[in-house]
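Appendix B. Worked example

We walk through a single record from start to finish. Start with the input: the chain for Formamidopyrimidine-DNA glycosylase catalytic domain-containing protein, Candida tenuis, length 368.
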Amino acid sequence: MPEVAEVAHVCAQLRRNIIGYRITGANILNDSLLFPSLKGNNEPEGEIRRINSLLDGAVVEKVGRHGKYFWIRFNNQVAMLMHFGMTGMIKLKNIDSHMVFMENGGDKKILETKVKVKEESTSGSSSKTTSKYFAKKESIKEVDNKKQEQEQEQEQWPPNFSKMELKLKKEKELDLSFVDPRRLGRIRFFTDITKDEDLFNLDPLKRQGPDYSKSGLHVTKIFEYGDPDPKRYIELLSLPEFAKLVISKKKTIKSLLLEQDYFAGVGNWVSDEILYQSRIHPGEVLSEKLDSSSPVIEALYNALISVCYTAVSVEGDVKKFPEEWLMLYRWGKRRTKQAKAKVGGHPVDFVTIGGRTACFVPKVQKKL
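Next comes the structure step. The output line below is what the pipeline stores for this chain.
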């Protein structure tokens, strides 16, 4: 499932490419799962015509994000609020993206790329790279560019599993598609939205907790890379408030971190990373063993902010994550013929908690 960093990348792509564009055409599929306003509607075709009328001629004014939700706001006070579910994604025709789906073997491809670039960057030279990553980002970018050029030549449009297509125009034309193979994403349309904050008075955003990736900095007019929307629509808990929350919950810390009404945007891999960086076992019920003044809770709080902020600052590009992160090594559970991955020289393992798979490193994430 796309989490806070992947959603931030999509928003960054949209902000770089569609601000000021006018919608000249829309193709909305009659899918009552993806479009909640179609569910139980006796006249779905009429509702689709209504949606088309909202979009026709609308100009993109703003792109925003909070947790796993993101939105496009138009000049006619219409907002399109989206959630990717498990497999949703936005595609822009002939616009490159570094997004890799790790569940489908993407982790192996990234590791192979890093190793290849590292070998090429060190061959014929005795000097070692001083980067904290496996290889220089410039070298990795060269490999990515070649791959993206090949993919563009083979690009199919509309893409497979496309549920909504928009045609946009400014100086040039641009095509956008929302794809979702498993149909667990959601696209909602709201009217009379004059500012982003209006969305937080409505379901589902009014039920969301803080987004700990947000720096709270002013949203700049000129944007190139990083967090496309650092504004905090909901204030973060302070350390004492966070500690009070954690101690009040009689559930595993892994399960607590996944609750979107407390930690918007945190999903399976982000929660695993937070717990690995804070050296906490995912199955711990912290309220049974700690009080609110424990340094363990402070470490958890710091890791929550650090992991979310860092992942968003590089737009979820795993090739730019710190080398000591767990994320790239947590995807091999089903590869029975493959040796266990190691992080920092220690093997990773998996445990099911609350019906969700948690990846951890037993050597450093021991029970309290």
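Two observations about the output. The longest strand covers residues 162-169. The radius of gyration is 22 Å.
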